[in-house]
Amino acid sequence: MEKSLNHCMYVLRCADGTYYTGYTNRLEQRIKTHNAGKGAKYTRCRLPVECMYYEVFETKSEAMSAEYYFKKKSRLEKIKYMRERGVEFDSDTDE
Predict the structure, then answer these.
(1) How far apart are CA 8 and CA 23, in angstroms?
(2) Quick one: what percent of the chain has pLDDT higher than 70?
(3) How far apart are CA 16 and CA 57, in angstroms?
(4) Does residue 70 belong to any structural domain of this protein?
(5) Fewer beta carbons within 10 Å, N or C terminal of the chain?
(6) CATH of the domain at 58
(7) Is residue 34 within 8 Å of residue 66, measured between CB atoms?
(8) Is residue 31 part of a domain?
(9) Does the structure show a pLDDT above 70 at 5?
(10) Is 83 part of a structural domain of the chain?
(11) Given pLDDT bands bounded at 50, 70 and 90, which one contains residue 6?
């Protein structure tokens, strides 16, 4: 049985340049699932996806709360949030 790992809020960049935000406790496996076309409906037609950013939390509740609030941000607010945490963007494709 696989041990439950850290609880993560993650942000994927889809092939069409949009962002998808989700929660998982197995980040690497979840990204593979998305890229296999078996993840969220949103990402299935926007493959491949790549992980742009993630945050680790001690509890599922904290991670899901972070996901909820991140999803409420505008695209520019999301970019600003990730930039402030060290994510670099290619200005031609990310803004």
Answers:
(1) 6
(2) 89
(3) 29
(4) yes
(5) N
(6) 3.40.1440.10
(7) no
(8) yes
(9) no
(10) yes
(11) confident
Tell me 19's DSSP state: E
- CA–CA gap between residue 87 and residue 58 (Å, rounded): 22
Burial group, residue 10, by CB count within 10 angstroms (0-12, 13-18, 19+): buried
For residues 19 and 13, the answer to whether their CB atoms sit within 8 Å is yes
**Could you tell me the two tokens for 64?**
């899901």
pTM for this one? 0.88
> What is the count of structural domains for the chain?
1
Q: Is residue 93 predicted with pLDDT exceeding 60?
A: no
* Start-to-end C-alpha separation, the chain: 42
Give the residue-averaged pLDDT of 19-35.
96
Assigned domain for 2 exists: no
